Amino acid sequence: MCALALMVPVPALATCAAMLWWPETTLGKTLFALSKPWTVLLPLFWMLRIEKRPLSWSLLRRRGVGLGLGTGLVAAVVILGAYALALGRIVDVAAVRELAAGVGLDKPLPYLGGVVYWITINSFVEEYVWRWFVYRQCEKLMPKWAAVLCAALGFTLHHIVAMSVYFEASVVVLGSVGVFAGGALWSWLYSRYNSILPCYVSHVLADIAIFAAGWHLLFAA
After folding, report:
1. Most buried of the four, 18, 173, 181, 197, by CB within 10 Å?
2. What is the pLDDT of residues 17-50, one digit of tens each?
């Protein structure tokens, strides 16, 4: 329980600090920046110093990669289908482009640079934090099905905060359901294979679909 208390609220609180409470201030940016090493290093500290387990590459076992690939492709199709239905109905193209310009993502090269970071680094870190660490801690306290849902809920919280800054309520609700479903899927994959690799493969394919929709929204719609 202590491990979850130290980890789960941090991304959401840091996002609130940077986007809601103290936006565009040194305090907000500093708190957000400090949350990154905290979320990466806490699981290692907990494993080595609290649980006293040695480092292992078992979290990258290749079992289940095929299922990760399959679920990722299904997720990508669902995401692109939802985007096609939402465009022009609940997505305000002009507003999204204005918001992208405000954070420097309104040009193709910076956008692609962001995509590479989010897919190669951010997605991997999220799997390491939310599946390998948070899900495993949840599993010690509750049945697997409940651990899957609780880890997915924690994973969704900071995404809700971030989306609420940029989008209207209907988009936030739709996006939150999608994030929660993805978090539950990847937690389930981890519970089945005890490896973050199938989760990461699935996550990457879902992210590619999201950023493809973003590209169309910003530069083609």
Report:
1. 18
2. 999 999 889 999 999 999 999 999 999 999 999 9
Among 108, 104, 90, residue whose Cα is nearest residue 168: 90
b/e sequence 25-60, b meaning 16+ C-beta within 10 Å: eeebeebbeebeeebeebbeebbeeeeeeeeeeebe
Would you give the end-to-end CA distance of the chain in angstroms? 46
Q: What angle do CA 77, 80, 82 make, to 5 degrees?
A: 105
**For residue 51, which phi and psi values (nearest 5 degrees)?**
-85, -15
Residue with tokens 């996006």: 175
Structure tokens at 142: 């509750």
Contact present, 183 and 152 (Cβ < 8 Å): yes
pLDDT of residue 119: 94
* pLDDT of 190 over the 90 cut: yes
pTM exceeding 0.85: yes
Helix (H, G, I), strand (E, B) or coil at 173: helix
**Which phi and psi angles does 211 have, rounded to 5°?**
-75, -25
Q: Which of 155, 177, 183, 157 is nearest to 71 (CA)?
A: 183
CA 213 to CA 36: how far, in whole Å? 27
**Total H helices, total E strands in the chain:** 11, 0
> Which pLDDT does position 99 carry in this prediction?
79
For residue 87, what pLDDT is reported?
A: 67
Quick one: three-class SS letters along 89-116?
Answer: CCECHHHHHHHHHHCCCCCHHHHHHHHH
Please state the length of the chain: 221
